[in-house]
Amino acid sequence: MFTDEVAFIEQLQNAKTKEKAFRELVATYKERLYWHIRKIVISHDDADDVLQNTFIKIFRGIDNFKQESKLFSWMYRIATNESIYFINKRAKERNVDISDYQDKLTSNLESDQWFSGDEIQVLLQKAIATLPPKQQMVFNMKYFDELKYKEIADILDLSEGALKASYFHAVKKIEAFLKTVN
Amino acid sequence: MRKDLENMFNNLDGKAKKQQHGFSVPTNYFDSVEDQFFADLATNQFPKETGHQVPSNYFSTVEERLFSQLEFAKKEVKVISLRTRILRYIPTAAAASVLLFFGLNYLTLTNTNIFENISSTEIENWISEDYLTLNPESFSAQFVDADFTETSLLEDDLSLTDDEIFDYLNTIDNTVLLTEIE
User: Fold this and answer.
1) CA-CA distance, A99 to A42, in Å (whole number)?
2) How many independent structural domains does chain B possess?
3) Where are the domains of chain A?
């Protein structure tokens, strides 16, 4: 996070300082955005593509950013939308439902060279893939990214109450899935 | 005694306690407390890492690939294109060409006119007043022997009539002729 976000945004929106400020932005947020995207699209190569597209969209849209939300929330939202768009597009290309597409992704995890999780981690990913897309994001952002409900609400444009309920139901479903498999 | 008991019960009442300490909670907080507690309890069994990996040095390559796709505003350098420079000088060059053209034409014409306007009398006077030093050798060097033959001199250029010869002889001073014969 930048201590003086307003001043930093001014630098991003000034043609003379845009390049330097944008480099700093990428250096600061690339890992966080990558992991957020990766949890949605699963594959490293796909996450890399979506991350590039996300930053390009941020670069092109920053001039019109009106600071109605935090810069971080705005970028996270772009990353989320780009990820959802990507998996929807892939599912459509394969003529399958998005849940079927994600199920296929997680079923190939053991053979993925960029996955080194144990059995329980594989099961957890499969369990998350059974959740509705938005609930998946709520769970990932709350459990793995440890964002506050207020931050998640800003990103997903949902109330905190709705988020808490969504998270609770997500946990319950995952718990039930793990118990069923075991 | 009775009053003392009444006061004691009042102090144990939650509302009275709240009024005393001044703390408050968010709206509907207690509605989700249980859910949140049991959700946290369940997730204690979940692995904290996703198991996803990235290639080594991946994050150090993100910026390089990203910025190769982005167009930053070019630094303000005053660059005068060759085309602009050429276009700027065309009117000047055209004007100079026109002036040169007319100048040369003027000189050529005036030279021709001057030469054409000179009468044979003026040329003869110019020679007789020794303005032109005639060197017999320079004349003879201009003519090749083959240029002159008796035949060519006498036949080709001889177009005078007898009357013209007699008229010429009448204009000449007899004393000059006698001097030449001698």
Assistant:
1) 13
2) 2
3) 1-96, 117-182
The pLDDT tens digits for A59-97 are 999 999 999 999 999 999 999 999 999 999 999 999 999
Indicate the burial class of A104 (C-beta count within 10 angstroms; 0-12, 13-18, 19 or more). middle
ipTM score: 0.85
A95-110 pLDDT, tens per residue?
A: 999 889 998 988 888 8
Beta bridge partners of A67: none
CA neighbours closer than 13 Å in the CB half-sphere of residue B65 = 12
- When CB atoms are compared, the residue of B32, B43, B73 closest to A18 is B73
The topology under which CATH files domain A1-96 is Rna Polymerase Sigma Factor; Chain: A (1.10.1740)
Q: What residues in chain B have their Cβ under 8 A from chain A's Cβ atoms?
A: 28, 31-32, 35-36, 38-39, 42-43, 45-55, 58-59, 62-63, 65-67, 69-70, 72-73
CATH code that applies to domain A117-182: 1.10.10.10
